[in-house]
Amino acid sequence: MTGYDFSAPFTFGVATAAYQIEGAAAEGGRGPSIWDTFSHTPGRTLGGDTGDVACDHYHRFASDIALMAELGVNAYRMSISWPRVQPEGTGRLNPEGIAFYRRVLTMLREHGIRPVVTLYHWDLPQPLQDAGGWTVRETAAAFARYAAAMAREFGDLAVDWTTLNEPWCTAFLGHCSGVHAPGVTDPATSLLVAHHLNLAHGMAIARIRGELGSRARCSVALNLHVTRPADPDDPADVAAAERIGTLGNDVFLAPMLEGRLPDALVAATSALTDWSFVTDGDLAVIHQPLDLLGVNYYSSNVVRRRRATDPRNSGGHGDTGVSPWPGCDDITFLDPAGPLTAMGWNIDPDALTELLVGLGCRFPGLPLMITENGAAFPDGADAEGRVEDVERIGYLEQHLAAVGRARQSGTDVRGYFLWSLLDNFEWSWGYTRRFGIVHVDYRTLRRTPKASFAWYRDVIGSRVLTID
Prior knowledge:
Elements: E1 2-5, E2 11-15, H1 18-21, H2 34-39, H3 57-71, E3 75-79, H4 82-85, H5 95-110, E4 114-120, H6 126-130, H7 137-154, E5 160-165, H8 167-175, H9 187-212, E6 217-223, E7 227-229, H10 235-258, H11 263-268, H12 282-286, E8 293-296, E9 301-305, E10 331-333, H13 349-362, E11 368-373, H14 390-408, E12 413-419, E13 438-440, E14 447-449, H15 451-462, E15 464-467
Helix pairs in contact: 3-5, 7-9, 8-9, 9-10, 13-14
Family: Belongs to the glycosyl hydrolase 1 family.
Catalytic activity: Hydrolysis of terminal, non-reducing beta-D-glucosyl residues with release of beta-D-glucose
Protein name: Beta-glucosidase
């Protein structure tokens, strides 16, 4: 038996995102986002699903917070819907949207649950997209103004602020492969977007700290990639894995945390762009001190230099035929080895330990937080209404143990946010993939805690994980 100690002040939490759970898409003065437009475009989401209703959290937040209190979490990672609080993306704030989030934040505090606020979880206001979206620098400036407004409005209730969630997905799934909103398929544009997201992050942190001073704890949540070469003795495969690491990780880590544009990134994408959009002073703006780094992790990859017989990599649902990896058409992603989650992702907890330890060595003194980790499985209620999601429990147990091993090695990991509290709208997969520890009947919207809910509650209560 192996035991892992997660004594306080280690944070146990759950995470959600506004567009995936709130619904009420046209209520309370909310304006449209790029995901409203994208999901209402035929063929973009599986089954034509949209977030119009989602889990109806907008009307049911009180009972959802009661579930969190029953679970015993210390913190809740939530996102603010930019178009709900500022429908045009700039200018006037929507008082109904502001009032809604004040009610949510206040109730969380009343239950002893610390809110961790994500400012951007992919729902750009459609008017900003109509003006160029993330392809124009002005959107970064608009985001910084929005961040400052949120700090002013909610700084009495929230001290933890995450600028962006998974900017890699916004840049490369949204603007390269086009399987996410706004559905653009232009590799060169995706690199421009990545830079503007970096700028938005740095500008927003400066504005938040300008409003709240040292009370603000600022972070970003990155979905960092663990990529291994198919043959570690083949220099071509090793180089392929390193290039994916550059395009998947250093495109954000290096500017945000080191204030530099990696030479390897410039070289890997030289056929697409000369990076002249990076102007004097940009890297200094981007390179803001962080109070912690959020790490989202689900699975790992194995790659090799493409062979003539290799099939083209599939982009998953909504595959456009364009890879999300600009400048990497000569690299093949191998099919993952089983067992797999419902997303077709492998289960590799050792890669999480590897990732955390590596980050701890590269950025000593920077605390880490698991801001998302979880798994989708095709679980459903039995005849008695129970959801015995034993596969999810196994996944969570293995990955929390992986965090424990990283901590035992001396890596400063401060907490773990399970994705997700609720089954919800899973982007282009619609409602076909369930990540929640609470089952949602999408017809009645009834919530049913799964077996994994009870398991996580017990771990939180004891703060010890014991593995056989």
